Amino acid sequence: MADAIIEDDTDDGTYDLDAGWDLDALRAQTPGCAHRTHLNNAGAALMSTATLTAMTGQLQLEATIGGYEAAAHAREHIDATYSALAELVGGRPDEIALFDNSTHAWNAAFYSLPLRPGDRILTGRAEYGSSVLAYLQVARRTGAELVVVPDDADGRIDLDALAGLVDERTKLIGLTWVPTSGGLVNPAAEVGRIARDAGALYLLDATQVVGQLPVDVAALGCDVLTGTGRKFLRGPRGTGFAWFGPGALQRLDPHVVEISAATWDGGRGFRWAEGARRFETWENSYVNVVGLGSAVRQAIDLGLDAVARRAVALGERLRRGLDDVPGVRTHDREAERCAIVTADVRGRDTADVAAALGAEGINVSTTVPGHNQLDERGVHPLVRFSPHYYNTVEELDRAVAAVAAIARSAG
Question: What is the rounded distance in angstroms from the CA atom of residue 80 to the CA atom of residue 214?
């Protein structure tokens, strides 16, 4: 198997990339690997042939026998998606709700929390832009207060500051575990302990985590965890999910109701559906649902511990390679870092750098200041690289060489 070990020139030892897989076979089952160097897995990863086959089979069935009939025919596969997601995060199938993206999953939880004047929402500086906008809107509507917790010296949410800011008015602690804007990994489990002690609802955005790092909701201590299918899980776009723990179901009043979420009582009332599905809508793309289930099952079968080791090691290899290029600076200063790598090239516009890499067949993305409103570093926009386990060292080296050429052309 290619690139089993990346040697580390520090005292930390080695970055172990040997996950026990046949990497060539995995790449052969990923059609996009034949055409591009895909380093935009934090945006949307490449789907496998197994996921593609699951989706096209369901789509063909819909075209052949009808959409409702195809959904009934696929009931076992649909149920398996709930089971796989529950296994992925360490919950139960009845605690999983499906959505068309992670933001809608997050909104379903956040907007269902009753808030009053004087209530407090605590969050960190790495919070995702859509969540920040939601906090601001609800604070304006309800009179609740948004409190932004400072970073510690490593760029993570400051746990001492968080503990000091929690009081009896704190109703919600919202945290983005891994932000969209860099390699930071926030101390999610430690935040969970603070939230439990305070009796505050803990809403954890794991959008950039699921499929990249292991997840265990019991160890995290969160009440709600949200994620997406299209990023490191390698599922289709248009998929998201949330895990709702028992405490969340007791405290949240879903902000919308429809025929899948509740049952009419025959009079002027209704009963909520059991479990997390009270937060769902009735209509779904079951093509996407079975595709998501396939992708999640593949991640579980590969092993998230092995996936994480390889992805994080590839990220560190890329980060160090970029740091060695004159005129290039990375911005992932945190003590614990993941596979997301952000950088800029002195004298070159970020969008131009991304476009130049794209012209070389290297997929990257860029960060946007408006998506990182609470980040005080003033570094955005940046070029965002995000390798995954199916990438190779040769691909990373090619990307570094391409960035070096761009930096040289900037003078």
Answer: 20
Q: Quick count: other Cβ atoms within 10 Å of Cβ 22? A: 11
**Strand, coil or helix: what is 5?**
strand
Q: Please state, in angstroms and as integers, the Cα–Cα distance from residue 238 to each residue in 44, 261, 306, following that order.
A: 11, 20, 27
E strand residue ranges, 17-81 = 37-38
Q: Is 357 exposed, middle or buried (0-12, 13-18, 19+ CB in 10 A)?
A: buried
Q: How far lies 136's CA from each of 117, 121, 123, 224, 356, in Å? A: 13, 10, 12, 20, 37
Q: Which of 267, 251, 262, 286 is nearest to 78 (CA)?
A: 286
**pTM tops 0.85, yes or no:** yes
Per DSSP, the three-state class of 366 is strand
Residue 365 to residues 38, 70, 313, Cα–Cα distance (Å):
10, 36, 20
Q: Could you read off the pLDDT of 6-29 as tens digits, one per residue?
A: 334 333 334 456 667 899 999 999
Distance CA 82, CA 95 (A): 9
Q: Tell me which residue of 286, 295, 282, 294 sits closest to 61, measured CA to CA.
A: 286
Residue 325 CB coordination number (10 Å): 19
> In the β-sheet with 328-330, what is the strand arrangement from edge to edge?
328-330, 341-345, 383-385, 365-366
- pLDDT band, very low/low/confident/very high, at 389 (cuts 50, 70, 90): very high
Write out the H or E segment, with its range, that includes residue 76: helix 75-89
pLDDT top residue among 41 and 7: 41
Query: For residue 11, what are the contacts with CB-CB under 8 A and spacing of at least 6?
Result: none
Which residues sit opposite 151 in a β-bridge?
A: 157
The alpha carbons of the chain give a radius of gyration, in whole angstroms, of 22
Beta strands 145-149 and 201-205 are unpaired
Choice between 106 and 16, residue whose per-residue pLDDT is larger: 106
CB 330 within 8 A of CB 322: yes
Alpha helix segments (H runs only) across 122-202: 129-142, 159-165, 188-198
DSSP one-letter code for 237: S
DSSP, residue by residue, 197-218: HHT-EEEEE-TTTBTTB---HH
Render pLDDT for 24-36 as a digit per residue (tens, 0 to 9).
Answer: 999 999 999 999 9
- 211 Cβ neighbours under 8 A, 6+ residues apart: 45, 231, 232, 233, 234, 295, 299, 304, 307
